[in-house]
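Request: Show me your protein:
***
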Amino acid sequence: MVVDELSDTDVDRIFQALADATRRDILNRTMRGEQSVSALAQHYSMSFAAVQKHVAVLERAALVTKQRRGREQLVQGNAETLRRAAQLLDAYEQIWRNRVDRIGDLLSEPAKGMKE
């Protein structure tokens, strides 16, 4: 189960990183293709340093990787971490669906002592 693959710290980092709209947008852009931090900064009305901080949060959560190429730092989305987060959510959904199914089974059973 995915829950075993991700530590609580990993899960906290991933979902705290995804809780911010700017970071989700950066992730979306970098999943489509590698971009420099400078190119990313052009899309936001905030300082370059602020964008770097958002990228650092995403990097600590392993949602993006950063590589230095010449003078640029290139950021690329990490599909594997997203897949693991999606599997975690799927596992929680399955727990919820099993509970709903059991409630449905209980409600469809005739009550004891009642004639059908």
